[in-house]
């Protein structure tokens, strides 16, 4: 009986007790794991009494008799309303956000769920029932598409094109005067260069805010906040001009160090970041003395509101507590004195007032970062890109970061998101990132989720959602446990997808979902229905050992050769990933290096044959010399894919052997540190890169003509 009630409580809490893994095997979450997760969800179940009380409380919450603060729906379709709501015979009014109203009344004495048809006008409207206001988020049936973007920025004849783009790790971009870290100016010049070669899009690594008080933390997928931007991508010369930057470098004696970091092959994050922040602080002080753009800065702060102020205050507090001056207190905010864990406390307000210069500095950094990213997007569009930048929305933020501190009521406590054992990692993954609480999101009107979406869409023509599978369910790992001892928590996918579609159209930006991993049944169909494009990666596009012909790739997903977590084509062809696994002892048990290299020989032959059958390669595979990867042929092969957009990573355009990140490593592999070999304004003009882009462009044109 207890085990049955435990399962009922888990199901009521949204935990998927049974699920099918990536290998097709049915799995059941162990009772001890369920208890650990339920306790972390504040549903104690240590004994029969606790279990009974928690079950009764959650069932009562689920059978709510009051309306939530926000309802999502699709234009022209019925609004999903619970039959438990007492709405029979009540009058309602819909007030449109841009003016106009609709009045109506629910039918009386009807046993079914109350019926309300959503208006055709999309937007965030106000629904009044007995004068109780509720936000009615009316979404279009699908996201803004690649075809919509082409029609917007080239006319109807452009809408039938099959465009292409490139992807880049922003931090890796190089230019003279960057101080050792890729910045928004380098991004701007790369976008202009890509547009000259015919690209319609430029996908970039996440630009989320990091921890200014801890420059040792630099993974773009482990941010402090997904609401704001990484200040380290600011070009200091843009702040007050190149002359002001030169004066700061000369006066502080930092010119030599600044130039030295610029020449490194690997980014020296701790030192280069500290130096850049120091330079930006000096420029901020000059700005304060003669604020030529003071009015613009003040407007930015007003528009950013409480969320922006919270982030700036967190940055100041984080630096203060990271100093080690208080025993037992660190930069990890759950270790702070109780009063400082509450963003609305009087102590936090007093600290912010006493350290107003520091708070203002971080507001200033966000202003400059937003200006830099916006400028790069404008440059991309002005250069002829129909889409422009595609930003990357990380799957979560650090549990000790700004977003977790300021949005505590909407986030889960005591968990890390991750993935169960699958084809990508036999041991599963725990990423050390926090996740939204699906229950709290509904209770708070999805406010934290909407503000995050708006930040991602703000300065881009598209958004890539990392681990988009989390829209339906998220693998949660309790703190202190390994990834195998997690469980899936269900999320309100319909609500989340509707909000994505609504914000997509409001910003007129495409949406891509990274759908690699253990995919639940029906997920792909729901994605396609919503116009949310998936991702198909060349190295994974296989069926029984054969590479799938490009014309058979999914038409509702973008195509790419590799990702930041997988080998570059040149590295894969040469078996460089096998070298790394051997060096770092990352090989799966029972799999020898010899067997892997023999398998890779067969895989190279299979890929060559697939490219030859597609008309992209000719003749027999040249000598098996793995140092000569068929990168030109791969660019043509990618271009012939049927997806609405093809993306070629810079690493594959240039034939670089190393990948940006090696999953399962921290310090043993230079993750997120590799820099491009040439400046961003000339990178794509190198003969090998220009040839591959031309082949990709030609293949996309060929694909267009053949459809």
UniProtKB/TrEMBL annotation:
GO molecular function, one term: 4-alpha-glucanotransferase activity
EC number(s) per entry: 2.4.1.25
Pfam family, one: Glyco_hydro_77
Catalytic activity: Transfers a segment of a (1->4)-alpha-D-glucan to a new position in an acceptor, which may be glucose or a (1->4)-alpha-D-glucan
Keywords: Carbohydrate metabolism, Glycosyltransferase, Transferase
Top EC class of this enzyme: transferase
Gene3D superfamilies: Glycosidases (3.20.20.80)
PANTHER family: 4-ALPHA-GLUCANOTRANSFERASE DPE1, CHLOROPLASTIC/AMYLOPLASTIC, 4-ALPHA-GLUCANOTRANSFERASE DPE1, CHLOROPLASTIC_AMYLOPLASTIC
Family: Belongs to the disproportionating enzyme family.
Protein name as it appears in the record: 4-alpha-glucanotransferase
Species whose genome carries this gene: Keguizhuia sedimenti
Gene designation: malQ
């Amino acid at each position: 009986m207890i085990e049955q009630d435990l399962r009922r409580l888990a199901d009521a809490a949204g935990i998927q007790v049974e699920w099918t893994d990536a290998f097709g095997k049915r799995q059941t979450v162990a009772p001890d794991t369920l208890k650990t997760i339920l306790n972390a969800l504040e549903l104690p179940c240590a004994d029969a009494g606790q279990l009974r009380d928690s079950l009764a409380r959650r069932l009562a919450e689920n059978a709510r008799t009051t309306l939530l603060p926000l309802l999502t729906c699709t234009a022209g379709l019925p609004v999903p309303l619970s039959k438990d709501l007492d709405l029979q015979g009540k009058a309602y009014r819909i007030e449109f956000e841009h003016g106009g109203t609709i009045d109506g009344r629910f039918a009386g004495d009807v046993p079914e769920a109350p019926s309300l048809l959503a208006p055709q006008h999309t937007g965030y409207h106000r629904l009044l029932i007995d004068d109780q206001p509720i936000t009615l988020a009316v979404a279009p049936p699908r996201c803004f598409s690649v075809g919509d973007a082409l029609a917007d920025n080239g006319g109807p004849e452009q809408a039938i094109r099959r465009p292409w783009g490139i992807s880049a790790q922003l931090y890796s971009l190089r230019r003279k005067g960057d101080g050792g870290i890729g910045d928004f100016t380098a991004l701007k010049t790369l976008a202009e260069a890509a547009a000259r070669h015919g690209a319609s899009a430029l996908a970039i690594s996440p630009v989320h805010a990091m921890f200014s008080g801890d420059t040792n933390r630099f993974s773009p997928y482990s941010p402090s906040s997904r609401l704001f931007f990484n200040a380290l991508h600011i070009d200091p010369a843009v702040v007050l001009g190149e002359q002001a930057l030169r004066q700061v470098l000369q006066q502080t004696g930092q010119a030599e160090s600044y130039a030295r970091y610029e020449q490194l092959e690997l980014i020296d994050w701790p030192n280069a970041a500290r130096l850049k922040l120091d330079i930006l602080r000096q420029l901020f002080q000059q700005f304060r003395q003669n604020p030529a753009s003071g009015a613009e800065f003040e407007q930015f702060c007003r528009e950013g509101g409480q969320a922006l102020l919270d982030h700036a205050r967190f940055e100041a507090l984080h630096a203060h507590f990271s100093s080690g001056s208080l025993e037992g207190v660190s930069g990890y905010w759950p270790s702070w004195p109780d009063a400082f864990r509450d963003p609305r406390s009087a102590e936090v307000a007093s600290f912010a007032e006493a350290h107003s210069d520091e708070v203002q500095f971080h507001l200033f950094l966000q202003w400059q970062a937003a200006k830099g990213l916006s400028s790069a997007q404008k440059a991309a569009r002005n250069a002829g890109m129909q889409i422009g930048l595609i930003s990357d929305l990380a799957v979560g933020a650090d549990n000790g970061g700004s977003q977790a501190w300021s949005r505590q009521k909407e986030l889960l406590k005591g968990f890390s998101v991750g993935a169960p054992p699958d084809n990508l990692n036999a041991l599963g993954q725990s990423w050390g990132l926090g996740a939204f609480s699906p229950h709290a999101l509904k209770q708070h009107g999805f406010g934290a989720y909407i503000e995050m979406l708006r930040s991602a869409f703000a300065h881009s023509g598209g958004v890539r959602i990392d681990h988009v599978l989390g829209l339906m369910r998220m693998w949660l790992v309790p703190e202190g446990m390994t990834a195998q001892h997690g469980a899936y928590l269900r999320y309100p996918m319909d609500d989340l997808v509707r909000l994505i579609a609504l914000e997509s159209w409001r910003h007129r930006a495409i949406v891509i979902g990274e759908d690699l991993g253990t995919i639940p049944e029906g997920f792909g169909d729901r994605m396609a229905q919503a116009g949310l494009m998936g991702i198909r990666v060349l190295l994974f596009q296989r069926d029984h050992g054969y590479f799938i012909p490009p014309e058979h790739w999914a038409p509702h997903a973008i195509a790419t050769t590799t990702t930041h977590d997988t080998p570059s084509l040149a590295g894969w062809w040469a078996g460089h990933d096998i070298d790394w696994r051997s060096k770092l002892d990352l090989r799966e048990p029972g799999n020898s290096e010899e067997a892997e290299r023999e398998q890779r020989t067969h895989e190279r032959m299979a890929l060559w044959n697939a490219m030859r059958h597609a008309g992209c390669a000719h003749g027999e595979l040249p000598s098996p010399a793995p140092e000569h990867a068929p990168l030109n042929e791969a660019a043509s092969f990618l271009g012939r894919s049927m997806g609405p957009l093809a993306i070629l990573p810079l690493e594959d355009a240039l034939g670089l052997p190393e990948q940006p990140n090696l999953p399962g490593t921290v310090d043993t592999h230079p993750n997120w540190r590799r820099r491009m070999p040439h400046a961003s304004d000339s990178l794509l003009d190198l003969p090998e890169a220009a040839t591959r882009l031309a082949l990709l462009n030609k293949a996309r044109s060929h694909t267009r003509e053949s459809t």
